[in-house]
Specification:
- The protein has 150 residues and is mostly helical.
- It has 2 domains: 3-66, Winged helix-like DNA-binding domain superfamily/Winged helix DNA-binding domain (Arc Repressor Mutant, subunit A), CATH 1.10.10; 72-136, Arc Repressor Mutant, subunit A (Orthogonal Bundle), CATH 1.10.10.10.
- 52% of the residues lie in helices and 7% in strands.
- The protein contains 7 helices and 3 strands; from the N terminus they run ααβααββααα.
- It has helices at 3-6, 9-19, 30-37, 41-53, 68-90, 95-103, 111-120; strands spanning 28-29, 57-60, 63-66.
- α2 (9-19) packs across α3 (30-37), α2 (9-19) packs across α4 and α3 crosses α4.
- The structure holds zinc ion (2 copies).
- The site of one zinc ion has 7 residues, from α5.
């Protein structure tokens, strides 16, 4: 399973709060992560273990840093979310409602499935809110029907 399918919403929130933290290389202290999540430090700490095990963050001297895989995972998350939003918009949901609907599925979908949806939607370049959707990464699904557009 891909990292996104293995993390919880709260772990994703923790990862995002670390990514938003102080400039590169300095690391984010536990109490800042806890504050961003609105929980006490021990609860925040419980989210960091799984992120570290998946190689999405590294921790040293009490500070957390997002790894290259972690940033790639966040980019993929945004892509999953916006492709799902586009799908729900096409299915008839108002733009405002697509965000909530996408939250129900964005962590569960595999990259391959997202790619299939993206292809079915004609590779939208923006979500219903006008935010950019990164082009499909080349992968197994891309050539599925004889080398479709990426
Ligand atoms: Zn695409
Ligand atoms: Zn959007």
């Amino acid at each position: 399973m891909e990292p996104l399918q293995r993390i919880t919403r709260r772990q994703l929130d923790a990862l995002r709060s670390i990514a938003r933290g102080p400039a590169r290389g300095r690391g984010v202290p536990l109490n800042s992560i806890a504050r961003a999540l609105g929980v006490k430090a021990p609860s925040a700490l419980a989210h960091l273990g799984p992120l570290e095990e998946l190689g999405l963050i590294t921790r040293s001297r009490g500070k957390s840093l997002v790894t290259r895989q972690g940033f790639a995972c966040l980019d993929e998350y945004v892509r999953h979310h916006r492709v799902a939003e586009s799908l729900f918009a096409r299915a008839g949901l108002a733009a405002d409602a697509t965000h909530e609907a996408a939250l129900e599925v964005d962590l569960a979908l595999s990259h391959r499935t997202v790619q299939v949806l993206c292809e079915a939607e004609g590779h939208p370049s923006i979500c219903p809110h006008g935010h950019p959707i990164a082009p499909c990464a080349p992968g197994p699904a891309a050539g599925r029907r004889g080398g479709g557009r990426r």
